[in-house]
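Appendix B, example 12.
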Amino acid sequence: MSSEFIELVDRAVELRLEEFVAPVVWREGGNLFELLVAVVLSQNTSDKNAFRAFANLKKRLGGVTPEALLALSTEELETLIRPAGMHRQRARNLKALADAFMKLGITPQRLVEMGPEEARRLLLSLPGVGEKTADVVLVNLGLPTFPVDTHITRIAKRWGVGDRYGQISRWFMERVPPERYLEIHLKLIQFGRYVCRARDPRCGACPIGERCPSYRSAGRSPVT
């Protein structure tokens, strides 16, 4: 299989960057804390919901900084981020995250100077930050990480790559040029959303087709 499947998806998928909250926030001049908040808001929900929740925060605060977020009452914060779901838990996590972020004095320059491994360890020490969240932040900063979400995990399983985060991430990092990690990561998510879906995958519209190890598995038929 090697990199053939990646190349086929790369050619077939036209990237729609505007569908992804993290790169949009970062490219529109967001600060590092705003990028981190955007990623946290996208956990276990759609980017569409995360966009709505982040827009509420931005409208209320202007700049989403740790200090501004901590100044909000928990009740108001919960209301603002309600579109992302799990608003009570997220509000607690964001408050703890803002406090830790401010105390550690994290900046983009500091993370870049640390390098990916040390920067990743620092981000993972923050409340509510897991592997995917840390890697999404770092890859948007241009550091060589390959985030793995539920769509990419599903694709990797169907391709026979594996089912563990680190295993999947390394597999893609070994086959994709570092300067394209973010782009291919996003294209794979789009591919998972619209073609290699969890339910009723559109095998008939897939550029890989019968070469995919999971094609027609368990009696599945192509769905166009």
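The CA atoms of residues 97 and 127 lie 5 Å apart. The first helix runs from residue 4 to 12.
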